[in-house]
Write a structure and sequence with these properties.
four-stranded antiparallel β-sheet, elongated, 554 residues, alpha+beta, 20 strands, 40% helix, single chain
Length: 554
């Protein structure tokens, strides 16, 4: 179907006879930004098409699509009557322009589409460790894309673009221009900017307004659920800064699937508006409630949205009650690790663990401040007491004079684990983003960061997740019963969050070296736009935006 208006002409194409509820049902279109454009719609074979072009300077607005979309199977239409029933229907649009030898000119086209159906689903994998990860998804309902709230066809999209292109492109170019006008090193800006593709590649945005990013993606399948809380702790730094309403929609979706006891689920189903846990094979995770509390309250601190805080506050209280009643093994009001039960889901920690403890401190510092806004005196006092005691325990039980131990089972039988975790102070990183100040001794923070660099960072390789002084090169994963090596591995999202924390702490040169290493490594690998962890286009590296927060002191 042809379309036109001041300064543009175009066409849209669809497939007649297709079930409108099919996932592929929709339209595509091409618009040429000149009202002098001409088109040829519905051509079939290249030879008549080229012969026409040899004798005419224009397409002459030919429309050969009449009767081409038939619902009766096997009926032959068009002029191409090959035995294979190849029902070809191509269309072209353009402008004519006379060029001198060596000359050139510029012209713009708009490619637009409208595929309204977006089906949600639930994982029908059997619950428990015996479940088969590849079982598949059962379709639940049509969630419909958010853009359906504004457009009803590819024509609507094309006309909107054509009539608003100057404003849209101007604002886009302005963002790009202002971003790269910074005095920061270009490789830093490139690394931060490069992860924006994940916002499109891996996300869902429903008509209802729920936004979530799939944990990982590869060409053959998605990896993990949507909006995993532990990965959101890192990746959502970009979203809350740029699209706060989208980030808050994710947290609302998680609130709706919180259990009555207060436990937070790991991720959302492929039907992100369904109040149902979406994760296979993740059990007994103790970090999810602290993750959730930090995210909810950071989002409030960044937006000042009192209505949001009031809506989310009961879920924060339930989460704290769950940790204190179900995940505190020794009665000290600190969550305890009892093996593999956090985002590092393939190496164990026992007792008090720096990764979890620093987050619990950040959560309590956040609750103490937010409770004051809410007028919740009981919660403010309790959070303050837990924060004070938790800081004491972290310094007393985990600080070894240089860094915070991976874990210390001081009330159990596992003893101390001397691991040097890159993320041992991830809670301090979150506290800085929330403007909460220091959770532990500031000198200890900088000493711990220096120790991580000493033990785990190699400029020609990257920042390993965890190292042990007894194994300065590689931890002997082959001598354990663990099924995958996470300790010796570099996770981009962790590296970039760590670089951000270095910069927050005034260790700017060190932070920039880590960023440069990540940037160089992915350029060499040819995966600059596709960072790997659990699948590609991974969500965690969107933590890159926090690097700008650190430079700016936000």
């Amino acid at each position: 179907e042809p379309h036109g208006g001041p300064g543009y002409r175009g066409y849209t194409m669809t497939c007649g006879g297709m079930d409108p509820a099919h996932s592929s049902a929709g339209e595509m279109g091409m618009f040429s930004l000149s009202d002098k454009s001409s088109y040829y719609l519905g051509w079939e074979h290249k030879h008549p098409y080229y012969e026409k072009m040899l004798v005419s300077e224009r397409f002459e607005d030919m429309n050969d699509t009449g009767g081409r979309n038939m619902e009766v199977e096997g009926r032959m239409v068009g002029r191409s009557q090959g035995r294979d029933k190849d029902q070809r229907c191509f269309s072209s649009i353009g402008v004519d322009h006379e060029l001198q030898p060596g000359g050139s000119f510029e012209h713009s086209f708009l490619l637009c589409w409208y595929f309204p159906n977006s089906f949600g689903g639930v994982d029908e994998t059997a619950p428990g460790p015996e479940g088969d990860y590849d079982t598949g998804i059962r379709i639940t309902r049509n969630l419909v894309h958010y853009y359906n709230n504004h457009f009803g066809s590819a024509r609507d999209v094309g006309v909107y673009l054509a009539e608003n292109l100057q404003d849209l492109s101007g604002r886009t170019r302005s963002f790009h221009r202002d971003f790269f006008r910074s005095s920061l090193p270009v490789y830093v800006l490139n690394q931060v900017n490069s992860h924006f593709n994940t916002l499109i590649t891996s996300s869902v945005f429903t008509k209802k307004g729920t936004f979530a990013i799939r944990e990982g993606m590869t060409p053959e399948k998605p990896w993990g659920p949507f909006g995993t809380i532990d990965v959101s702790l890192y990746g959502s730094a970009s979203i809350i800064a740029l699209f706060p309403e989208l980030q808050k929609s994710l947290m609302h979706a998680h609130r709706l699937i919180q259990t009555a006891e207060g436990e937070i689920h790991h991720g959302l189903q492929a039907d992100v508006d369904m109040e149902h846990d979406g994760t296979w094979g993740v059990f007994d995770r103790v970090d999810l409630v602290p993750n959730y509390i930090q995210l909810v309250l950071r989002d409030y601190f960044w937006t000042g949205d009192r209505d949001y805080l009031e809506t989310m506050w009961p879920s924060v209280r339930r989460g704290i009650a769950y940790i204190l009643s179900e995940r505190d093994a020794d009665g000290d009001r600190m969550p305890d690790m009892e093996g593999i039960m956090c985002s590092y889901d393939n190496f164990p920690m026992y007792g008090l663990a720096s990764y979890l403890q620093s987050q619990w401190l950040a959560a309590m510092a956040s609750v103490e401040r937010a409770a004051e806004v809410m007028g919740d005196r009981e919660m403010r006092q309790m959070a303050g007491r837990i924060l004070s005691e938790g800081t004491r325990l972290m310094e007393e039980k985990l600080w070894n004079g240089r860094y915070y131990l991976l874990s210390n089972d001081y009330n159990g039988s596992r003893g101390m684990d001397e691991g040097v975790l890159a993320d041992q102070l991830v809670g301090q990183w979150m506290a800085h983003q929330g403007g909460l100040g220091y959770l532990v001794d500031p000198e200890h923070v900088r000493s711990a960061l220096s120790s991580v660099l000493e033990y785990s960072y190699r400029e020609d390789f990257g920042l390993r997740n965890c190292s042990w002084p007894a194994h300065p090169e590689l931890y002997p994963i082959h001598e354990t019963d663990l099924w995958v090596d996470q300790a010796n591995t570099c996770w981009t999202g962790v590296e970039l969050a760590f670089a951000s924390l270095l910069i927050y702490e005034g260790m700017v040169e060190e932070g920039e070296r880590v960023i440069r290493t990540v940037d160089d490594r992915y350029r060499r690998a040819g995966l600059y736009w596709d960072h790997q962890e659990f699948g590609g286009h991974y969500y965690r590296p969107l933590a890159a935006w926090s690097i700008l927060h650190a430079y700016l002191g936000l």
